[in-house]
User: Which sequence fits this backbone?
């Protein structure tokens, strides 16, 4: 079956530091890939997505590139802010099984 | 467009009771998925409904059930509550799978269930 593996947190960074959260996946066929973010006390929000190999998703300074050869979709941001503190989930959607699979989530804490 | 709404937002129940949670998807969305989120287990998939039919199901006991109505609104029910059922229950809606295979989900704020 499908699976998504992402680094376990928490990840603690100073403001303006560079962020990378690793995500790798296993899937049948050609999945679409997503990053969701969950702020404290809220539901998940779609942050960015990529639907085919070599696509780059971007939003709010965050980027991730769909790498089919390494089955990865790492999340990056050049300069994090305190307001980026949240839990980040990597996910894939599989047309074959018609379902969505989430990673365990990585908690990011940005300190001033 | 209104987002996904879930009611109630907070709920306290006693062991052995049952509970029903409600989810109203975004207008036009026919797929509704339910997830359980706990600090120890993370985000776990419960089930998905599409056009009133359960299409996928996670690994939860039969005490967890759901249904979807013709207007796409969905309910989930948990019977004979256990302490371990305390969690945030999230609902997500989607248009459903199209030719592209992209399956963006839009989440509600969740229902916080506490079982005492």
Assistant:
């Amino acid at each position: 079956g499908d699976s998504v593996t992402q680094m376990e947190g928490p990840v603690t960074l100073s403001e303006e530091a560079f962020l990378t959260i690793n995500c790798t996946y296993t899937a049948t066929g050609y999945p679409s890939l997503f990053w969701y973010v969950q702020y404290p006390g809220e539901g998940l929000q779609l942050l960015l997505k990529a639907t085919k190999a070599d696509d780059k998703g971007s939003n709010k300074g965050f980027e991730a590139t769909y790498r089919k050869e390494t089955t990865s979709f790492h999340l990056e941001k050049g300069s994090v802010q305190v307001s980026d503190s949240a839990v980040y989930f990597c996910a894939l959607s599989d047309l074959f099984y018609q379902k969505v699979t989430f990673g365990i989530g990585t908690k990011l804490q940005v300190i001033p | 467009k209104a987002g996904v709404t879930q009611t109630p937002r907070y709920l306290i129940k006693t062991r052995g009771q049952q509970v029903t949670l409600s989810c109203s998807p975004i207008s036009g969305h026919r797929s509704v998925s339910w997830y359980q989120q706990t600090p120890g287990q993370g985000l776990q998939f419960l089930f998905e409904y599409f056009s009133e039919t359960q299409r996928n199901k996670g690994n939860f006991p039969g005490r967890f059930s759901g249904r979807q109505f013709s207007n796409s609104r969905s309910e989930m029910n948990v019977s004979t509550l256990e302490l371990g059922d305390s969690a945030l229950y999230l609902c997500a809606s989607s248009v459903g799978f199209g030719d592209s295979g992209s399956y963006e989900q839009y989440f509600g704020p969740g229902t916080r269930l506490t079982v005492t």
Q: What stands out?
A: Chain A has a mean pLDDT of 92.
